[in-house]
């Protein structure tokens, strides 16, 4: 077995990544495909934690723009992340992978609450841990939750899975001439407003020297190559 360069990783998936070609909700085929990517990592000996967003169901800012109280909207957004995490746990378990959902919001009947030491224990026992409910606070994002949990669990690497190959000077979908950045610093990402993650998440990673890879989740096998040390996507460092 090839040695792993990164043994413990936290993978952030946006809620939208679960939609596939749909306009909202969850595409079961896409879910299974991502679950298989995670399965390959676990089979290679990695400890895997996941943070999944909720944008395929609700975003607080979007609801607030249509008149809803922002805090209520954010609560709905956080609950949406719990739903996505439950769906992913189900997909992982169907592949035979033990998985636990730990929520920052208390939803005792459906999953565990987040507890730092228990999360570490799950990871050490080879269980995939899905951190749900974001940070548990309104006005934050799941990028911030991913950064926070990555730092808390001492992840070797935070991976942000996207629909594009990495970090570009502009959105490569709308601007084909955008330049690709194979490696950059968090300060550069902030200075050039590169939208790698939101500023809160970037600053947390920067201040705690948490390396970040931004990569394309739709490239089959890329995650596995990444944790084995291949240069996949863009690397963001302090
Ligand atoms: N959210 C929140 N606090 C958090 C994380 C998320 O209030 O710590 C809410 C917020 O409304 C956000 C929604 O949950 O819009 C879904 O998360 P996010 O937008 O980060 O999901 P993604 O864009 O990754 O799908």
Automatic annotation (TrEMBL):
It is found in: Cytoplasm. One of its GO terms (cellular component) is cytosol. Residues 8-216 form the Aspartate/glutamate/uridylate kinase domain. Signal peptide: none annotated. Pathway: Pyrimidine metabolism; CTP biosynthesis via de novo pathway; UDP from UMP (UMPK route): step 1/1. The keyword Cytoplasm applies. It comes from the Bacteria. The keyword Calcium does not apply. One of its GO terms (biological process) is UDP biosynthetic process. UMP binds at residues 54, 74, 135-142. Homohexamer. This is Uridylate kinase. It comes from Thiorhodococcus minor.
């Amino acid at each position: 077995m090839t040695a792993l360069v990164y043994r413990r990783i936290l993978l952030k998936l946006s809620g939208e990544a679960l939609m596939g070609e749909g306009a909202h909700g969850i595409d079961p085929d896409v879910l299974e495909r991502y679950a298989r990517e995670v399965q390959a990592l676990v089979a290679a000996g990695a400890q895997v934690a996941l943070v999944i967003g909720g944008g395929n169901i609700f975003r607080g800012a979007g609801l607030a723009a249509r008149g809803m109280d922002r805090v209520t909207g954010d609560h709905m957004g956080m609950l949406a992340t719990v739903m996505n995490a439950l769906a992913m746990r189900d997909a992982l378990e169907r592949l035979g992978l033990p998985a636990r959902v730990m929520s920052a919001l208390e939803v005792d009947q459906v999953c565990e609450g987040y507890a730092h030491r228990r999360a570490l224990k799950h990871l050490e026992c080879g269980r995939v841990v899905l951190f749900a409910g974001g940070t548990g606070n309104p006005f934050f994002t799941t990028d911030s939750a991913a950064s926070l949990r990555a730092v808390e669990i001492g992840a070797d690497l935070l991976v942000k899975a996207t629909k594009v190959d990495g970090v570009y000077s502009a959105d490569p979908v709308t601007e084909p001439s955008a330049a690709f950045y194979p490696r950059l610093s968090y300060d550069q990402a902030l200075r050039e407003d590169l939208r790698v993650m939101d500023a809160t998440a970037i600053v947390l990673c920067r201040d705690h020297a948490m390396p970040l890879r931004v990569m394309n989740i739709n490239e089959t096998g890329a995650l596995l190559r990444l944790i084995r040390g291949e240069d996949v996507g863009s690397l963001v460092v302090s």
